[in-house]
Write a structure and sequence with these properties.
By secondary structure, this protein is mainly alpha-helical. The protein contains 17 helices and no strands. One of its GO terms (cellular component) is plasma membrane.
């Protein structure tokens, strides 16, 4: 399996253009810089800054909103001005945000820095993701290979960065949090310089939309909204790594110490098996079936935990259902996420790929925000532990019936 994974990764990498390689390495570097800082932010706010627990949660929520909720802004700007200026502007803002966060000592300063850090990603992430998707479609048309192979490699690069980033941050945290923030800023300085040198001003074949608009048409695009709903359900399920899973681990193990190993298991699964799984699926399933199968696998993960709660487990075996959930959730993620990104170019209007890419993240983020609040309420209710997991299993499977039949493209409107 390891030899197959390595060979698959090398074959996919060699088939890519220089631009695609740059953008995939960009995702890798983005996540190293980001995850070197983010995992340690909550503790810093609570201990070093002295914020109350509710205020720490509020600040973290602001970061999520300024990033995920404003993806659509970055998408619109990418369609209007192109990839290069939006990526460069996002890098500059992320550098400024990390430096500010490292020196911030008051609540207003922290809030301003966190908003800047989040908005930076709302600029560069839609720009990079939309161009990777467009280039993947072009490569598919030229070579006949599946676009999902490219998007899977993009996912692997992001997960590898998310795995390395916290290790770097933990190493630097022996100095202090400011050092961690400055190191994150240095990563983005390197990215900024690399893109200023290598990223072309005008990417051949990418249309530039001079007129505003497109949002009204997007909101009437039922096929796109259905895919958004399915993607949002996947994101809601994935967020249970941080909501329902810690609660379950605490219940069976008496502490949340095993969580770190379960998170590492998820990241390593993606890095090691994403490409061979994607290649196997691409030869057998279209995008709709890939998303449907992924959602069913994730639903099965919730069901496993629900069923296991009727059995008394002891010792290390008590964590087996949680580990099975993480494995099934990760496998489902490896089917759903690349397929959803690969589907967006078929659903977007001409010249609006940035808007649609950003809107999928923004709309899904809003749905996840509402769904997470409902899930948190359900976990706090005095109901048997099996109930939340069964409800989550059912919710995850429902969007399968909403997914549209795939068509090659959406006519220009």
């Amino acid at each position: 399996m390891q030899q197959l994974t390595s060979r698959t990764r090398k074959q996919t990498w060699r088939s890519l253009s220089g631009l695609l390689r740059l953008l995939i390495l960009t995702q890798f570097a983005f996540n190293i810089g980001f995850f070197a800082v983010l995992p340690f932010l909550a503790v810093h706010l609570g201990t070093s800054i002295g914020m109350a627990g509710w205020l720490v949660g509020f600040v973290l929520g602001l970061r999520t909103f300024s990033q995920q909720g404003l993806f659509v802004v970055g998408g619109v700007l990418t369609d209007r001005y192109g990839v290069r200026p939006v990526v460069l502007a996002g890098c500059v803002l992320r550098i400024a945000g990390f430096v500010w966060l490292g020196f911030a000592q008051s609540t207003p300063a922290v809030v301003g820095a966190v908003l800047l850090v989040g908005f930076a990603a709302a600029l560069f992430s839609p720009a990079v993701e939309s161009e990777v998707a467009r280039q993947a479609v072009c490569l598919e048309q030229e070579t006949g290979g599946s676009r999902t192979h490219v998007l899977a490699l993009f996912t692997v690069a992001g997960q590898a960065g998310a795995f390395i980033g916290p290790l770097l941050g933990a190493l630097l945290l022996t100095a202090d949090f400011r050092t961690v923030c400055l190191a994150g800023a240095v990563v983005f300085v390197i990215v900024l310089c690399g893109h200023a040198w290598l990223l072309p001003q005008h990417i051949p074949g990418r249309p530039v939309v001079r007129a505003a608009g497109g949002l009204r048409t997007l909101l009437r695009n039922r096929r796109f909204l259905a895919v958004c709903c399915a993607y949002a359900t996947y994101l809601l399920a994935y967020n249970q790594l941080y909501l329902a899973l810690p609660d379950e681990v605490q219940r069976v193990a008496g502490s949340q110490t095993p969580l770190a190993w379960l998170f590492a298991l998820s990241s390593l699964l993606v890095v090691c098996t994403q490409l061979p799984i994607t290649r196997w699926v691409a030869d057998r399933l279209d995008l709709r079936r890939s998303m449907s199968t992924g959602l069913l696998i994730i639903a099965a993960g919730f069901a496993v935990v629900a069923v296991a709660q009727s059995v008394t487990w002891t010792g290390a075996a008590a964590l087996a259902p949680a580990a099975a959930f993480v494995v099934l959730l990760t496998v489902g993620q490896m089917l759903v996420a690349p397929a959803a990104r690969a589907w967006v170019p078929d659903l977007a209007d001409d010249g609006r790929l940035g808007l649609y890419t950003g809107a999928m993240s923004s709309l899904s983020g809003l749905m996840v925000l509402a769904g997470s609040a409902a899930t948190g309420t359900l976990l706090d209710l005095d109901v048997p532990p099996v109930v939340p997991w069964l409800v989550l299993a059912a919710i995850t499977a429902l969007p399968i019936f909403l997914l549209p039949a795939r068509r090659a493209a959406v006519p220009a409107r």
